[in-house]
DNA sequence: CTGTATCCTTCACGATACTG
DNA sequence: CAGTATCGTGAAGGATACAG
């Protein structure tokens, strides 16, 4: 899996504080951001909070809404509300959001294809910690 | 940029706590992990700590050594020491490390190619925060 | 069902100073 | 030059209970 030549912008200042890659990683830094984007993408169309919550083991109601709010502010996710009792709420990716999902999908794909490698990394870690 | 069909392992349990993608993201969670891997890769061959430190704005000596130790334990980075005064130390990616660099490079590449999109995300965020 | 408000704990990170 | 030790802080995340 060899990589194509790097674009110019990449060569210029790949290490600066505010460079694009660092900003991207910062954006994905939160524990649930990528999970939620990825799930919204996989479920497709509009998703209700309950479904989202059930789809992501370990995710709490609080962290879900908090993360969704952040994604909303970034313009990656839209929230639709239909007043009723009980209320009906749906979340969906915006156009911008669908584009930002690309790198997330890359990561998920790569991770799934190289699970064995991650096993080795974990095994190395466990052995090293034990040797102390 | 359309994506190929998903591999089976990816379909099976993409949401579980211990699934490969989540482990990958967890591995990259540290603030400096990806930066250091990426830099070791770009510099190529063996790198001295000083050079590394100078290449990554904002990185402190402490966080550098700490992160390098972690990467060593994972088997991604090797440390060569030549006893002398002053001592000569070099870090290089292992075979495993060179493979694990792939997803990092993907992120950097994508980030660089879509800097404008990241600008929009940041602008959205700034506007939303200001509107409060 | 969806969302908010508190409280509390943890730990990742940074600043600083010191050793060989 | 490389590395360690120590202390302090903020922010992220989890548990719980409540509200519309």
UniProtKB/TrEMBL annotation, chains A, B:
Q: Which Gene3D superfamilies match?
A: Winged helix-like DNA-binding domain superfamily/Winged helix DNA-binding domain
Pfam families, sorted: HxlR
Determine if Ubl conjugation is one of this entry's keywords.
no
Show where the HTH hxlR-type domain sits: 19-119
Q: What high-level taxonomic lineage is stated for the organism?
A: Bacteria, Pseudomonadati, Pseudomonadota, Alphaproteobacteria, Acetobacterales
| SUPFAM superfamilies per record | Winged helix' DNA-binding domain (SSF46785)
- GO MF term (any one): DNA binding
Q: Which UniProt keywords apply?
A: DNA-binding, Transcription, Transcription regulation
Write down the species. Gluconacetobacter takamatsuzukensis
Is Transcription found in the keyword set? yes
Q: What is the name listed in the Swiss-Prot or TrEMBL entry for this protein?
A: Helix-turn-helix transcriptional regulator
């Amino acid at each position: 899996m060899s990589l194509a030549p790097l674009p110019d912008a990449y060569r210029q200042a790949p290490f600066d504080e505010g460079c694009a890659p660092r900003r991207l990683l910062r954006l994905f830094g939160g524990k649930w951001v990528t999970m939620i984007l990825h799930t919204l993408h996989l479920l497709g169309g509009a998703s209700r909070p309950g479904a989202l919550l059930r789809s992501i083991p370990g995710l709490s109601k609080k962290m879900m809404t908090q993360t969704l709010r952040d994604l909303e502010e970034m313009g990656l996710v839209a929230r639709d509300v239909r007043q009723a009792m009980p209320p009906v709420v749906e979340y969906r990716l915006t156009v911008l959001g669908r584009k930002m999902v690309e790198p997330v999908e890359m990561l998920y794909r790569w991770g799934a294809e190289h699970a064995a490698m991650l096993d080795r990394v974990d095994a190395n870690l466990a052995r090293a910690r034990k040797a102390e």
